[in-house]
Design a protein that fits this description.
By secondary structure, this protein is mainly β. It has one domain: Roll (SH3 type barrels), CATH 2.30.30. Helix content is 7%, strand content 44%. It contains 1 helix and 8 strands, in the order αββββββββ. A 3-stranded antiparallel β-sheet has the order 4-1-8, with no helix packed on it. The chain has a 3-stranded antiparallel β-sheet with strand order 5-6-7, with no helix packed on it. It has a two-stranded antiparallel sheet with strand order 2-3. A hairpin with a 2-residue loop joins strand 6 and strand 7. The longest helix has 6 residues. The chain starts with a helix and ends in a 12-residue tail after the last strand.
Length: 91
Amino acid sequence: MDAMNTLAAATRYEVAPGYRVNVRSGPSTKYAIVRTLALGATVAIHCQKYGEWVGGPYGTTNIWDCIATGEYVSDAYVHTGSDGMVAPRCA
């Protein structure tokens, strides 16, 4: 499998059912909302970084998931099955 196919096959994670999660420009609620995920959305996590502590349906965490360039969601709203990082740390 070449690099493009590997990237296309990235693991997708479910966003908490019943939540329309705000996507922010950085790893904190102080950053601007760039869009809102639809109900039932799934996301691919490109990398993760530490930021503001947030409580949600999957606990309280300071891990933020980068789902696209300049787009972050709190890991407290993403079902990764882990309390730790599941992707490389963002540069």
